[in-house]
Structures are given as structure tokens and as C-alpha cells.
Amino acid sequence: MNNNLKRLALLAAALGAGAASLQAHAAPTDPRVGLQLWSVKDEIKQDFEGTMTKIGQLGFQGVEFAGEFGPYKDNPAGLKAFMDKHHLQCAGAHMHFDQLEGASFETTTAFYKTLGCSNLVISMDKRGASTEQSAQMSKELTELSTRLAAKGMRIGYHNHAQEMAGPVGKTPWDVIAHGTPSVAIMQQDVGWTTYAGKDPVAYTRTYPGRTRTTHFKAKLVQGSTDGAPIIGQDKTDWVALTRAVRQVGGTDWIIIEQEEYPNGMGQLETVAASMKGLQAVLANPAAR
């Protein structure tokens, strides 16, 4: 059997095991596990419903949206019904500030309220590259936090490498954490924190209760070639990190995000490999 056939067989096995788990209504994980849909950005455009179904079969309890809704772009109620059918919750949504400005605020919040989604996360902003501009941006995040709280929703901010630049304690990420209310989500992207040479475990513990949702992404330190960008095949201490999000992070959702697909692997195939690695971590007693 060649490598491509082997990988397809492994993916089929993973989907089959996941489907069996769903039928048995397995107990939910702690925290819940979701998938950032950017991980399958090409496959989900080709077949939205089929890809979402497979995500549920892999054992994910929810998804975090990134602007792709397939045939449900203007039908959040229909999307909610489809997700309910496949036992998928809305773990959150990534967006830019403009989707929460002016008249867009009501349109955006109404859409996600229908999905039962309360976590609205700013995916990136160029102001996050400097401490001075991050301080200004934090004021905007704070204002949005107040407005969203009235709707039972939360604002969040997601880091890339730029927010982790500089000395520990004085990075743009630190500025944002100190400049926003405790209810605002500091959605740490573990992969980008690692890439920037910082410790994701330490940052989780530095800001207790702020990691309501987090991206578990396997990414190597900048310049390193030691390992693969798949959870459990890289150098991240996933056991210590999972213990931290469980003990002090206040984490509701661990969200896998996959942006690299090694050795010619497909998007969903690579996601399945990272999910397998995470499931092993979650089952490890040392991760409690």
C-alpha cells in the first residue's frame, strides 16, 4: 500500500471511530474541543456540509468560524439546525473590528446569537505589532466588551507572533491583557507564541482566567526544523499546557488550528492527526 492509500485508510478509520463515539454519546471532554475552520479553508469551500459532518465524526464538539458558512451565509437558523444534527456547537468566531462597527454590530451579533455563539474574537489587527498602538486598541476592545456583555457575549483577541515581540511582561500581548477587562478573552495561539520564542504555559499562568478559548496549534520555533507541525509530533509541552488551561486558564474551549500540512497531507487528514495527538494528551493523568 503506498503512502497516499495508507493516509486515506487512517483518515477513514479516524472518521469511523469518531462516528461510533458520537452514536454512543461519549462524555464531553474538559475543556471542550473545537476546530478553527480556517484549518480546512479549501476543503470546506468545496463541500461545506460534507466537511462539517466529517469534523463532527472526528470527535470535535464544536467549530470556530472564520467567515465561511457555505449555503447558510444568510440563514443562521438553518446553520444552527444543521450543526445540532451533527452535535456541533459554535465555539466562537473570528472577525475584524469592522464587523462590530456601526450598523454591522447588530447584524453580526444577531447572526451569532442565533448560532448560540457568545465568543467573538478579533483575529488580527496591525496595531498589535506595537505596545503603544496596542494600548489604544485595548480601549476599543474594552468598549466592545461592555456592549457585547449586554447581549450575553464576550470580545476576545487572538495573537500572532507580533503580539509576542519584546521582553516578557512588556510585549503587546501584556499591554492588551492589562488594558482590557478580565471578561475579555485573551485567546492565546500557542503556535505563534512558540514561534516567537515565548512560553505558552507561562503566559497561560500569568493571566489566570483569561484563556477562555485558546488555539492549540503545533508550530516550531522560528528557524527550527526539529519536529512536525502536528500536535504530539512537535516540541510543545502539551501536557503542561493542558494542565495549565485546566487549572488556571478558565478555559471553556481548546480549539485546534492547523495551518501547515506536512508531507503532502490533506487539510482534514492533518487535522485528524492533531486531534489524535490531543486526545492522547487529554487522557494523560499528568495533564490534570
Task: Give the mean pLDDT.
Answer: 93
Distance between the termini: 39 Å
Q: What percent of the residues sit in helical stretches (DSSP H or I)? A: 40-55%
- Identify low-pLDDT runs: 21-27
- SS summary, helix count: 11
Query: Total strand count, please?
Result: 8
Written as H for each helix and E for each strand, in order along the chain, the element string is HEHHEHEHEHEHEHHEHEH
User: Beta-strand level of the residues, as a percent range?
Assistant: 5-15%
- As laid out across the biggest beta sheet, the strand order is 6-5-4-3-2-1-8-7
Class by helix and strand content? Answer: alpha/beta
Q: What Rg, in angstroms, do the CA atoms define? A: 18 Å
Main sheet makeup: 8 strands, parallel
The geometry reads as: globular
Summarize the structure.
The chain has 288 residues and is of the alpha/beta class.
